[in-house]
Amino acid sequence: MILSIILKKIRQAFFDLLPIILVIAFFQIAVLKQPLPQMGEVLFGTLLVVAGLTLFVMGLEMGLFPIGESMAHALARKGSLFWLLFFAFALGFSTTVAEPALIAVAWEAAEIAGKGGLIDPGKESLNQYAFWLRISVAFSVGLAILIGVLRILKGWPIHYLIISGYILVMLMTVIAPKEILGIAYDAGGVTTSTITVPLVAALGVGLASSIKGRNPLVDGFGLIAFASLLPMIFVMGYGLIIFG
Amino acid sequence: MEFFYDFGKTLLTTLRDVLPIIFLIVGFQLLVLRQPIPHLKRLIIGGIYVVIGLALFLVGLEKALFPLGNIMATQLSDPDFIYGADKVITQADWKAYGWVYLFGAMIGFATTIAEPSLIAVAFKASQVSVGTISQWGLRITVACGVAFGISLGTFRIVTGTPLYLYILVGYLIVIVQTIFTPKSIIALAYDSGGVTTSTVTVPLVASLGLGLSATVPGRNPALDGFGLIAFASLFPIIAVMGYAQLTHWYSKRKTKNMEKT
Predict the structure, then answer these.
(1) Per-residue pLDDT tens digits for A200-222
(2) Residues B125, A220: contact at Cβ < 8 Å?
(3) How far apart are CA B189 and CA B229, in angstroms?
(4) B216 phi and psi, to 5 degrees?
(5) Which of A6, A186, A218 to mutate: most B Cβ within 10 Å?
(6) CA B180/CA B178 separation, integer angstroms
(7) A7 interfaces chain B, CB cutoff of 8 Å
(8) ipTM more than 0.90?
(9) Which residues of B touch A36 (CB under 8 A)?
(10) Domain boundaries in chain B?
């Protein structure tokens, strides 16, 4: 019984990965016309990926989703707006501030700004620039989850908030320094890690289903959207302040 | 031996990612909510599965798929491959890069299907909508959006047109679509932009962008290498809303026809 469930999960994980295998094989054999290098290594790696994805999906259903939802229910039952919003902010801030992808992007941004002569190219000032860039992105993600949770509580329609956000991004694009634009746009994409996303999704859906008059589908989603929009605005704002 | 070293290192990084979440949840349970967590044992086992699974997944990707993907991205954008050897190229010809656009589209599609965050969100969406949103339907729609986005993004790098123009037009399309899309799908559509760019897609796509901007004559990696990730998060929104509009329109027409007969 348990074995057949596990086999089913492994089969699912295999189908999830099949497109990548096909694409790489096609380009290697038909377009570049070269044999696959290090065949054994590649096969072993693929087995690891299938096993990893299987475990991850099982853990998702057993651990991450239930914990997110039970936190949402418990906080909604407690009825304290302050603690709910505090939790939302802390979740966004703490999972983002040490995110390796963000550290890498912030450092790269500092180097570009240093080379472009926008800031002092010394090590000290580059470090400081990268640090505050990271803090402003993490703060913006925390604020984003907070606003998203507040939206679920109040039942505000999401499109007004997101569209005003987009319009703000468009306006800031026009006035922000060109050197920061690429990084600002990409910052929205790198902030939401693989463990944060399921947790935040479960939090939103759990909240929406435990508050009367909210629909989990209409109101429960959207937290991740805020978390990818606000960092763009903050990074551009940071660029505007630093470079004047 | 080397495998265990790699695995241990990745496991530690993943644990460090999870640490703030554990602190936050335990702290809240003990200090604010002050009540025992239900099904604690099951949750802990599930959490361990997630961490080990993710670490295995990342080590496997780094061993097998990333090196191959990176080699391919460089080979495909190599001027010798594109224009034939022994030719001196000063101006990029966008028509010569067909294989690059196709590779961008296909690798974008394939990595999105394997993206664990998207699997999680699709699972939740189908659960919440009681099956009206199918997991595979959502994932394939999002993957088509990413495919188009990456392909257009590589075209942008080859032609060297400014990034912000594409982004501004994309946002305008999203705003107009929002007005006409069924309200129930809007939040999910916005979310699907954020989940596509994660552990699998970002490293492969970033190396494609940097490799391409380093080999196309007249491009600067520092300025033109960025932006593919932004494309990969914008177009899934358009794709999901477009798909919802299509099915909405189709079902409306069907009921109209049924009323007639």
Answers:
(1) 999 999 999 988 888 888 888 99
(2) no
(3) 17
(4) -70, 130
(5) A186
(6) 6
(7) no
(8) no
(9) 68
(10) 1-64, 78-260
